[in-house]
Amino acid sequence: MLKNTGNVIKDYIKNNKIMYLSLFLFYIIGIVLGAASVNDLDFQQKDEMVTFFNGFLKLLDNDNFSQINLFKTSLLDNLKLVGLFWLLGLTVIGVPMYYVVIGMRGFSTGFSSGIIMGVLGTKGVLISSICFVPKEIILVPCLLALGVNGMKLSGNFFKTWLKKNGPQDTGVKQKIMPYSFVAAFFSFFILIATLVEAFLSSGALKLIKI
C-alpha cells in the first residue's frame, strides 16, 4: 500500500512538475527578498532583536513554558494556512493567489532567519537551522502539493467561469471531494511539522545560550 501511495505521489509530481517548480521558485524568491530586507534594519532595530531572542530563550528555560501551548498556537496557524489554501482552490482567482501566498511564506522565513543570523552571527546560523530547517523540510513540500492541488481545481473553475454563457462543466463540482481528500492527506504531514516545531525544535533551543 505504501509503495502504491508513493508511486501515485511520484506520478502526480511528475505530471505537474511545471506548477511545482514555479511555486518553489516563488518560495525561493521570497526567501531571498526576505533575507535581503534585513539589511534595511538600523542598529537600534537589530539591538531590539537581540533583546527579543534573549528573552525568548530565557522563556524556554522557564518552568511555566508549555510546549503544549506552543503546539496549539502553531497548529492553529498552520490550520488557518491549510484552510486558506483549500478556499483558494474554490475560487476563480486562486491560481495567482497561490504564488502570492507561497512567496510571502518564503519572505517570512527568509526575513526571520536573516535577522537571527544577522544579529547573532555563527550562533544565529545554528538557531535558524534548528528553528526553520526541520519543519520547513516537511511543511514546504506539503504546501507546494496543496498549492498545485488548489491551482488545478481553481483553473477548472476559471475555465467554467469563462464558459458561463456556454455549456457548463458539471464535472468540476464532482472534483471537490477528491480535492478535499488530498488537502486532508497533506494536512496530516503538516501536523507532523507542527509537532517537530513545538517539541523537537523548542527542546533543542533550550540547549543554546546566547
UniProtKB/TrEMBL annotation:
InterPro entries: SpoIIM (IPR014196), SpoIIM-like (IPR002798). It comes from the Bacteria. The chain crosses the membrane at residues 20-38, 81-102, 114-132, 138-158, 179-200. Keywords: Membrane, Transmembrane, Transmembrane helix. It holds the Pfam family SpoIIM. The keyword Transmembrane helix applies. This is Stage II sporulation protein M.
